[in-house]
Write a structure and sequence with these properties.
about 110 residues, alpha+beta, Arc Repressor Mutant, subunit A, 3-stranded antiparallel β-sheet, two-stranded antiparallel sheet, 4 helices
């Protein structure tokens, strides 16, 4: 097998290597897990980033690591999908919640 510089994420699924060229592969899962957390409560509140990351890891079919999920969560914060409070230096130091715009989209 030749090394492929164009694929960012590689995972083993269905007894074969799957490649993906975009980093946003897990973003929909991160958003839907956050919606599930928000729906369990009567009000929309901030959740510890580590709590959301754990929720995502628990629902993943292919494990990719908490560092990867936190990286994607920080990108989603920068894109305005999530708001945060605290310090983005470590997942235990900040909390996140979906913006109102993303709370109204149906869970996919």
């Amino acid at each position: 097998m030749l090394y492929d510089d164009y694929n960012i994420i590689r995972s083993w699924e269905h007894h074969e290597l799957w490649n993906n060229r975009t980093e946003d592969r897990d973003d929909a899962l991160i958003i839907s897990c956050s919606k599930r957390l928000h729906e369990k409560d009567d009000e929309v509140k901030y959740y510890k980033a580590a709590r959301l990351i754990g929720e995502v890891l628990g629902h993943m079919e292919q494990y990719r690591g908490d560092e990867w999920i936190e990286y994607r969560l920080r990108i989603l914060v920068k894109q305005g999908v999530f708001t945060y409070k605290g310090d983005l230096k470590a997942m235990r130091l900040y909390e996140v919640k979906l913006t109102d715009e993303y709370l109204t989209y149906p869970i996919s």
